[in-house]
Prior knowledge:
This protein has helices at 2-14, 50-66, 149-164; strands spanning 21-26, 37-40, 70-71, 78-100, 107-129, 134-144. By secondary structure, it is an alpha/beta fold.
Amino acid sequence: xxxxxxTLVTILVGVPAFxxxxxxxxxxxxxxxxYQTYQYQKSDAPVPSQLMDQRVVAAIEYxxxxxxxxxxxxxxxxxxxxxxxxxxxxxxxTDYYGAGYGRYRGGWSSxxxxxxxxxxxxxxxxxxDAKEKALLWRGTATDTVNDKPEKNEKKVNKSLEKMxxxxxxx
Length: 170
């Protein structure tokens, strides 16, 4: 039983833990009740995947429409942009094994280090006052990128849901 528990703990500790992180910031003096329409503006930054780009834009538009904002072609109250990036990162973990014979009496121990390389993706959504060209709201989400596009789509949707949960800010 002890060896099974030790193996389980070793596996769980050895696997890097990555959690989705979502942050929102906004101009506290902005009166969001004056805004009713928006226009999506394509960013100049390259997108990692055209298919994911379409999914992100559709999700942003969905959340804004659910909040009562109308997308227009001309003369919008708000401009909406998003940026996405992906980069490789590494995490190093070390597992220690050993047995001792009491405090300061010696024993044996061994350590094994593991390097995990993963891809970290970030999505940033900006909402601007169209007339003033002033940034009013920014949502950021960071999470690991999966090899399966459907899992990434779920992560993006969950991130945007968290971002827009309390939008517009009161």
